[in-house]
Design a protein that fits this description.
Blueprint lengths: L1 H14 L28 H12 L4 H20 L14 H21 L2 H14 L10 H17 L6 H19 L2 H4 L8 H15 L5 H23 L9 H22 L14 H7 L23 H8 L6 H9 L10 H8 L14 E4 L5 E5 L8 E5 L15 E5 L2 E4 L7 H9 L28 E3 L11 E8 L2 E7 L10 E9 L4 E8 L6 E9 L2 E5 L2 E6 L2 E8 L4 E4 L20 E9 L4 E10 L1
Antiparallel strand pairs: 1-2, 2-3, 3-4, 4-5, 6-11, 7-8, 8-9, 9-10, 10-17, 11-16, 12-13, 13-14, 14-17, 15-16
Helix pairs in contact: 3-4, 3-15, 4-5, 4-6, 5-6, 6-7, 6-9, 9-10, 9-11, 13-15
Length: 620
């Protein structure tokens, strides 16, 4: 048994090893800054070139991005709403910090572009309000980080026109609320977290140190060096080796946006990002993000990511740096076809800067239909084409030790004929699950085997399109591996080894899942039982369609279309309804009244035998 535990832990560790080491060369570098304000991203000469590119209308996409971003700045000026120190029900201030960064970004950009004083007045008013706060809420340090980035940007971009007392107030606030807290041992470890936090926190700290360099050069040099090294410490975890962001597409957008802010801010004043953008998998992550969007505008939303494939202007950075405008395929398509498109991102100024370096007019559909990769969350995302009615599949391996992970190894989503037929369950928001578990002195952020996290609706394997064996939760120490990728017109998908997810309940478990040439989905599950233990297998489907049982199969129906699910290779018992996890605390039961349907089947693989079950999902 001890050897089994050791081997399982080793297998999980192997899943996260990068393909090569990232080399960062900041130590010993001259980090002094001699340039005047503005110095973040674009000095005066560079911003004039940006303005010229927009006005020359070389790219309709760029012009529309600019126009909608300016409209947002106009709305901020017109509303002139006060900014208040107001924690939300969960005790966080992130909504305030994000709103400040949104307003500061668009108003500072609009002032630089037009020199209209109305934008300067609004930005300066916001700066004075937030710099008069009692703190920037470091107890949830994302709040402090995004506020730091907002104030640093406004201070630097508007420096020459800010009142002296406003500049002084900014300097005092950043020193007390950003620099001092960043050096405080209570918060220091947060800059080295192995999730998206280290990107947001270190980017914000670095841009503040660059913006305020002249106020304390020695301290600011040290903070820039520290931010680069801390960022480099875990950046590979987010991208290596093939570009898959373990936390999912939503967190790719968050972490990668701030990574771009850090890299380009360093590049702007030092002429280099010290190797951060050379992180294995970083550039490839743009292809991951493009692939994560299905043909009907829904994402492969594994982990805590959202289902909506929202605008991803972060892709303009990759289109620029790689010279491949096809990486911005979905962005250009949205701008051309969506009448409601608007650049509303709080880092919109950054993405406009990147887009101005891309002479993009129109982008054809990408040639590649399949993306796959290894890492701590190996997966395959593939499609039959780029038309709305073409099938789309996203399927994953991995395990529960990734940040924001679910017990969802082997799970997938499937779109066909313009609908999503098999989906991820809609998990409750953080604030709701945190508030509920707080009533029993628990938290959803513990990822141990006995954690209440796995009892929250949407986090357990019984609510995902995967297997459950002997009625147990997946083993949180396991890591399902991607063993083979298929990418031909006959079949597109992958084969995964799920064995380490079921170490005590099966000798071997493999899942092969592919889109077939006719557009149907085929899932082949091979389950080998242990010599001394039956394997009672439950196969779950989660869907927004109406579910019914018919003629030895399952029918899914929505808006006049029908999908039939049938099984070969074993005698199974079909069922509908949710298979509840054991020991769900009463405080979490209301979350199980979710607007999704469940179906599936069960079978028993006798001890010492194995079964191969083939499931086909086909539109009628």
């Amino acid at each position: 048994m001890e050897f089994k535990k050791w081997f399982t832990a080793l297998l999980a560790a192997v899943c996260v090893l990068p393909a090569q080491a990232l080399e960062v060369t900041v130590k010993g570098s001259d980090l002094s800054i001699r340039s005047a304000h503005p110095r973040l991203l674009a000095d005066e000469a560079a911003f004039k070139q940006h303005r010229k590119a927009v006005l020359a209308c070389r790219s309709k996409a760029l012009v529309r991005m600019h126009e909608t971003y300016m409209a947002m700045a106009d709305a901020c000026v017109a509303e002139d709403a006060p900014v208040e120190y107001a924690p939300d029900a969960a005790g966080k201030m992130l909504h305030v910090s994000r709103e400040v960064l949104r307003q500061m970004g668009c108003c500072a950009y609009a002032w630089r572009f037009t020199k209209d004083p109305k934008y300067l007045r609004r930005a300066e008013s916001v700066l004075n309000q937030v710099c008069s706060f009692p703190d920037w809420h470091p107890v949830h340090y994302l709040d402090a980080a995004e506020m730091t980035a907002a104030v640093a940007l406004g201070y630097d971009w508007l420096y020459a026109r800010l009142k002296p007392e406003t500049r002084e107030r900014c300097e005092q606030a950043v020193t007390a609320f950003a620099f001092d807290t960043a050096e405080d041992n209570r918060w220091r470890h947060l800059f080295r977290k192995d999730n998206n936090w280290h990107q947001v926190l270190n980017a914000s700290l670095a841009v503040a140190a660059i913006a305020l360099y002249d106020t304390d050069p020695e301290r600011c040099r040290a903070l820039v060096e520290r931010a680069v090294l801390d960022n480099a410490l875990h950046i590979e975890r987010g991208y290596a080796p093939d570009g898959i962001y373990p936390e999912g597409h939503t967190y790719w957008g968050y972490g990668t946006g701030f990574q771009e802010l850090l890299d380009l801010s360093l590049e702007g004043v030092y002429g280099t990002d010290f190797g951060l953008s050379q992180c294995p998998g970083f550039m490839a992550s743009a292809t991951f993000e493009r692939a994560a969007r299905g043909n009907i505008g829904l994402a492969f939303n594994y982990s805590d990511s959202g289902i909506r494939a929202e605008s991803r202007p972060q892709l303009w950075y990759f289109a620029w740096k790689s010279g491949d405008p096809g990486l911005a395929y979905w962005e250009v398509k949205d701008i051309e076809e969506n009448p409601k498109y608007a650049l509303k991102d709080r880092l919109g100024f950054l993405y406009l800067w990147c887009a101005s370096h891309c002479a993009v007019r129109s982008v054809p559909a990408p040639g590649a239909l399949t993306f796959s990769g290894q890492g701590s969350n190996p997966l395959v995302m593939t499609r039959g084409g780029w038309d709305r009615k073409d099938p789309y599949l996203g399927v994953k391996g991995g395990g529960a030790q990734n940040s924001h992970a679910h017990l969802d190894a082997g799970s997938f989503v499937f779109d066909a004929g313009g609908f999503r037929w098999l989906c991820e369950p809609p998990a409750p928001g953080y604030s709701k699950s945190e508030a509920a578990l707080r009533t029993i002195n628990s938290t959803p952020w513990n990822r141990k085997q006995d954690s209440h996290r796995w009892k929250v609706f949407g986090y357990n394997n019984r609510q995902h399109n995967t297997l459950t064996i002997n009625g147990k939760d997946h083993d949180v120490r396991g890591c399902a591996t991607l063993e083979e990728v298929f990418d031909t017109p006959e079949r597109r998908g992958g084969r995964f080894d799920l064995s380490s997810i079921f170490p005590d309940d099966a000798a071997r478990v493999e899942r092969t899942i592919c889109i077939e040439a006719d557009g149907s989905l085929r899932i082949t599950d091979c389950v080998a039982a242990k010599d001394s233990l039956d394997a009672r297998v439950s196969w779950n489907y989660t869907t927004h369609a109406t579910v019914s049982l018919s003629d030895g199969g399952i029918l899914l129906q929505q808006k006049g279309r029908t999908m039939r699910i049938c099984v070969k290779g074993a005698s199974v018992d079909f069922r509908t309804g949710l298979d509840m996890p054991e020991d769900v605390p009463d405080c979490l039961l209301p979350f199980y009244e979710a607007p999704v349907q469940f179906a599936g089947y069960t079978l028993t693989v006798p001890a010492g035998t194995e079964a191969t079950i083939t499931t086909t999902c086909r539109l009628l």
